[in-house]
Amino acid sequence: MMAPVLPLRLQHELALPATRDERARRNFTAGLRSFVLHELAEGLRREPAASQAGLVDARQMHAALRPTLAFQFYSALRVAAQDMVYQTVRSGVERHRDQLVRRAARLAVEAPLGSLQLDAALEVPRSVTAVDIHLMPGSYHSERGADDLAAGAVYDNRLAVSSFGLMGRNLDDIGQSMARFVRARFPQFRPQRILDLGCTVGHNTGAWCEVFPDAEVHGVDVAAPQLRYALARARSQGRALHLHQMNAESLQFPAASFDVVCSSMFLHEVPRAGIARVLAEARRVLRPGGLMLHMELPPNRALRPFDAFYLDWDGWYNNEPFYRPYRALDPGQLCRAAGFAPAAFVEAAIPSWEQAGSDASWQQALQQGSAVESGRTGRLARGVTWYVFGASAG
């Protein structure tokens, strides 16, 4: 079993104190999720039903495995472990709900970095309100009052548990890896304004501040409590994030106003028609010579049937209704439909900066190749590579 490396405290001032029992439950739950996603999943891969001839895609693999006892046990335990993640963090968030508000208020005085623009008239899309995404109770947007940021605290702390240490102590491995990829792939590129779409608590957004310290970094999300939490989180780390409550399908920014438009694990939360609008808006707000880059799940076409099924599992059983429709799309075609030139398309599987351990090791891993690999790309595991795609603006 892959032992979790779960941090007891996140690296910012909004990190919640936890009792000994709460820490024990979080570590147990992290270990359980690691066991399910690795040992149990690999056992399922070895099921005779998974190797029968003629299985060509995720849907056929799902149909073949679903009647088996191994699949039923795996799925039941994976759903239970996901529910346990929230059970382990919600009690602490509820106990410290008022304290979180006070900390955010204190940081606004002591470290008044960045900014926050909320829009009370914004209609949170039904794709967020209709389901508890990732089984998160109340989804991402629920709030109690004007200053509430508890949903952000739940998101931040549950990610620390559910990623069992693989995202780093600041949970920003995707952002760190993406930003470093841009710096390595385009060494002469000096972005001055960066926009992160669907930023939630800003954990990956803040990494762009570190890699490009001269840039002005913005983030948008539809969920007010996530943004309130993100601002306080960033302030406690000395990072200036400019956050906006805004739908990425209809950005309220002028044309040609950003050098980079990025996202991480966001597009698969958007309905298919909405994805086209998100990419068209990204193209509109990019300056000439700018770059759009999205970290996402790799497309079905790039994976073997079992690994495509493994990623699609969330679409069937984890309240991710747009997961599978997104993964059936062609990223290159999406970029062309948004107005990018075919030759401007960018696609790679980049190594995890956190797991590399140093910039030198990460650079070496990046130079060794960037092909999508079944069993590694997009899968939360040791040796993970992150799939990214996008395009440059002419």
What does this structure look like?
- This protein is an alpha/beta fold.
- The chain is built from 15 helices and 8 strands.
- The protein has helices spanning 20-45, 58-65, 69-95, 97-110, 126-129, 150-162, 173-185, 205-211, 224-236, 272-285, 305-317, 323-327, 331-337, 353-356, 359-367, and strands spanning 115-117, 193-197, 216-221, 241-245, 258-264, 286-296, 345-351, 385-392.
- Helix 8 (205-211) links the parallel strand 2 (193-197) and strand 3 (216-221).
- Helix 6 crosses helix 9 (224-236).
- The longest helix is centred in the first third of the chain and has 27 residues, at 69-95.
- The chain is globular and about 60 Å long.
- The chain starts with 19 loop residues before the first helix and ends with a strand.
Précis, in short:
The protein is of the alpha/beta class and 394 residues long.
List the helices and strands and how they pair.
Layout: H1 20-45, H2 58-65, H3 69-95, H4 97-110, E1 115-117, H5 126-129, H6 150-162, H7 173-185, E2 193-197, H8 205-211, E3 216-221, H9 224-236, E4 241-245, E5 258-264, H10 272-285, E6 286-296, H11 305-317, H12 323-327, H13 331-337, E7 345-351, H14 353-356, H15 359-367, E8 385-392
Parallel strand pairs: 1-4, 2-3, 2-5, 3-4, 5-6
Antiparallel strand pairs: 6-8, 7-8
Shape: globular
**Widest sheet: strand order?**
1-4-3-2-5-6-8-7
Determine the fraction of residues in helical runs and give it as a percent range.
40-55%
Uncertain spans: 1-5
Total E-strand runs:
8
Q: Structural class per helix/strand content?
A: alpha/beta
Cα radius of gyration in angstroms: 20 Å
Oligomer: single chain
Q: Could you state the order of secondary-structure elements as H and E?
A: HHHHEHHHEHEHEEHEHHHEHHE
Largest sheet: 8 strands, mixed
- Put simply, the count of helices is 15
Query: N- to C-terminal separation?
Result: 48 Å
Mean pLDDT: 93
* Percent of residues in β-strands: 5-15%
